[in-house]
Specification:
elongated, Phosphate transport regulator (chains A, B, C), Put_Phosphate_transp_reg (chains A, B, C), UPF0111_domain (chains A, B, C), about 80% helix, mainly alpha, homotrimer, PhoU-like_sf (chains A, B, C), 6 helices, Methane Monooxygenase Hydroxylase, Chain G, domain 1
Chain lengths: ~200, ~200, ~200
């Protein structure tokens, strides 16, 4: 199969922007779990801004896609990747908004661990996405993101089981269960990104 | 790019039917939040009927799609739009069933607000979908549906946070949290409809 | 429309493997609801193994898809079907892990009923998928899977409503509500499989 020389490479730039945006969001989430609720309002406001930045990038990609005739990678992969990156940012914000609105005083140790897994996944997303144009060393980052998702899954399962065990107030159980689930869904969304990147890389070999 | 003159325009008719069906469903949901539980069983039965009507329309679209060679808009967009419209109707019914089965006595003010946002979104869906064939004035309705989804998101987030604040019974918290979330997911599904319509409109310009 | 004689029929073999894997998983889930928690750890370990087997089959399908030029059925249908079958297995395991980690002592009658519906759906999936290559008698199994999903939906709705009625401990309500929802989502995933198979069958007629 031959390949037309792609004319429009701007997509890779947009993907890299979306990935760094996610990385910054993940850093803010980690800060929230480390500092406690002293700066929750402020951190959450920052995450709302980052979410809007992400929305704009997604719209730019989709608009460009609809006006581009020859794309460097499959049209549907561009669309899915844009949506998947957007989902990651939305879920980081959704985790933060829950901690803030539910008036969490001190994030649990498990929330801290999950935020760190999200941060590491975000770092791997940046690496995978910035290697996507050259299709170089993409796979190892995708594998790592999958490993991190499994880790988040285990942490959140154990954390939720603990909530039931330790005689907590039902209200706290409801709040924390949802926060853990939202953080875990964030790593699921990271895995979706990895799966799309992996499939793009496989097609190109 | 030239366009083959489309032969099969029946799709637009089906989409309009699905949209009016949703609008009728949204009206019933608003009634439920206004009247209280006196007519819950009856209203819910009506919504089950409307859900079945929606299912039939979806199946007709997919069957026609599988037998049509030249479609007026992209095949995948027809499929996605049919599924997205179906999801909206399903989630309206899912909101109603929860109020009924959980034996809610008096829907909260916030449930009323969310039902109104769903009704307004349904009205915009009708307008967007009926303009789709002429590709006329579609965008403004999509933008409005997005705005309404943001509004529903805020109402439901605040409503859930309030549940934790006001010393409610844990059982009520669990019930209402799920009802608010289901109503909010309904507006998410409306947004999915808007995004597909927007993307169809963008491709045609 | 003519059809190129398909070269690569291995996809059907993989789909059949994924389907039998699901069937074995469903059997283990039924055992868990029948035996009570005496063997939970062991059964869950078995389901984790089956989940890994499922993951491998999914990866094999996607890898083969990316390297195959002429596919016996539409590329996207192969991809969607692989993902949908994987989702069923994941949700069977997710139901089991919740019963285990939440230290359920005696699965409820409703959990038993839902597990049986999942088992019957799995049996229909095996039949539908093994008929897919010959496109023979596929539809009746898809219709049955849809019927079973409706049944699971009703069982789980009633079961959750009962949780609120019968003066249960809030913790138990939270646990069982999630288990019922996860089991119901398993039948939703079975329905996704049926919908894809149905659409493949419709295209081929």
């Amino acid at each position: 199969m031959f390949r037309l020389i792609p004319r429009e490479e701007k997509f890779f730039e947009f993907f890299e922007k979306a990935a760094s945006n996610i990385l910054e969001g993940a850093r803010v989430l980690v800060q929230m779990t480390e500092e406690g609720n002293v700066n929750f309002q402020e951190r959450w406001k920052r995450l709302e801004e980052l979410e809007h930045v992400g929305d704009k990038i997604t719209h730019q990609i989709i608009r460009k896609l609809n006006r581009t005739f020859i794309t460097p990678i499959d049209r549907e992969d561009i669309h899915s990747l844009a949506v998947a990156l957007d989902d990651v940012m939305d879920l980081i914000e959704a985790s933060a908004v829950r901690m803030t609105l539910y008036k969490i005083k001190q994030p649990t140790e498990e929330a801290g661990k999950l935020a760190m897994v999200i941060l590491k996944s975000a770092e791997e997303i940046v690496k995978a996405v910035s290697n996507l144009e050259r299709m170089d060393d993409v796979m190892e980052h995708c594998i790592e993101i999958n490993r991190l998702e499994n880790m988040a899954d285990e942490i959140s399962r154990e954390a939720i089981a603990d909530l039931f065990d330790k005689g907590h107030d039902p209200m706290d159980v409801i709040k924390w269960k949802e926060i853990y689930e939202t953080m875990e869904m964030t790593t699921d969304a990271c895995e979706d990104v990895a799966n799309i990147v992996e499939s793009v890389a496989l097609k190109s070999t």
